[in-house]
Amino acid sequence: MAKKTKSFDPKFLKAAVYGANDGIITSFAVVAGVAGAGLAPEIVIVLGIANLVADGASMGIGDYLGERSEQTLRKNNGEKVSMHRLWQTGLVTFIAFTIAGTMPLVPYIGEYLLHFTITLDQQFIASILATALSLFIVGSLRNIFTKCGIIRSGLEMLSIGIIAALIAFFIGAWAESWVKGI
Question: What is the pLDDT of residues 9-22, one digit of tens each?
Answer without folding.
Answer: 778 888 999 999 99
